[in-house]
User: Which sequence fits this backbone?
């Protein structure tokens, strides 16, 4: 999935006003950051005011799919031409950065910001493919080990699609950047790594006895 | 910090169109979700289009502070009366929810959505207090063990403030909600807990030899 080459073209919406040295338009980097996340934050405008909601998503090629509920406001508004202007942001926190000075404290992170116009997925076949992708995005391999959605469930599933065109990544790595005159201060400085890990699977109360947890649920950190 | 009582008053912006049974306006719950996060997602409107950016934040009482950079677009726009309409969202992922049916897959999460008008913090004294709070929000106890910001650094720090008034929390807990007719399917179902953990501290390359990591950096999950 991450053998993409080339870069997205920067636009006025994807060149940050600050921190340009941390920005990247590399397609493979953007894909890897998107694919490693669980939840995105979906932004849209309601009556002139911003709204930001967490939701599930999945990428298929150069298209991003965002999960919603039929009847929810952004889904309804996306149905009217030409679609709903959205901003979808995915962020991973990698480390806390402790400098000697309060001012230079920071965090290491990887983020992707996607600007675009979202439209609802209506074709049942595409919807079925997307629902599988949403499930596999959270637990790779899971869609093949579950009952597929029927026509009624597909009708009750709402998904927005947007193209990956106006896209940028931003990454901070490395240690603290203390000022030279602070290096002799007695305060500890460095990084505290932060990771997302899985615990042991917890069976549902009504799981049939003897049903063992599948191989794809091995505990560990998100790859 | 979490001994707050009472609730926020629901408004048209904080009553979800879907999933109302998961919504809460409980002040102590909102505070606990905000205080447990590292990064928020800040949404604002730029030329009619939504923008969502990850950034650091801290809560002091009923006021939320969001970190920015002087010169960045939202900070500049917030300086013009009456301020910048924003939506600040904080989300914690707690578990992956695996149902027998693809349709009922979900995640357990806790989120808070804050709507409001952000204004820049300009008083140097408040700014110094906020910078301490931002540092302590990421690493409790750290601000007292670092060099405080000087006047030049405070001038270079940009912080937005907004009141916690239009606020709601949303929480999903518990196992999968499979349909009765799916309970006998052979697929494993249950939860995969997800946690954020700290790794061992990594000293800065230029840390003076013999400087040991402080007690407040004990490895472990976020409380």
Assistant:
């Amino acid at each position: 999935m991450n053998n993409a080459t080339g870069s997205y073209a920067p636009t006025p919406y994807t060149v940050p006003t600050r921190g340009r040295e941390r920005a990247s338009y590399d397609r493979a980097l953007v894909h890897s950051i998107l694919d490693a996340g669980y939840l995105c934050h979906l932004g849209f405008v309601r009556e002139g005011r911003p709204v930001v909601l967490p939701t599930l998503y999945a990428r298929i090629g150069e298209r991003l799919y965002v999960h919603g509920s039929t009847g929810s406001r952004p889904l309804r508004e996306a149905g009217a031409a030409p679609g709903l202007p959205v901003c979808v942001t995915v962020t991973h926190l990698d480390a806390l950065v402790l400098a000697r000075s309060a001012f230079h404290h920071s965090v290491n992170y990887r983020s992707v910001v996607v600007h675009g116009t979202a439209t609802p997925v209506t074709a049942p076949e595409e919807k079925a493919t997307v629902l599988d992708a949403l499930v596999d995005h959270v637990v790779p391999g899971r869609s093949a080990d579950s009952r597929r959605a029927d026509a009624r469930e597909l009708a009750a599933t709402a998904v927005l699609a947007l193209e990956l065109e106006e896209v940028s990544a931003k990454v901070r790595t490395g240690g603290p950047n203390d000022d030279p005159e602070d290096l002799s201060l007695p305060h500890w400085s460095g990084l505290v790594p932060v990771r997302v890990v899985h615990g042991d699977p917890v069976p549902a109360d009504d799981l049939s006895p003897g049903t063992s947890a599948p191989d794809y649920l091995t505990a560990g950190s998100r790859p």
The helical segments of chain A are 27-35, 73-78, 124-138, 151-155. Chain A touches chain B through 97 residues (CB under 8 Å).
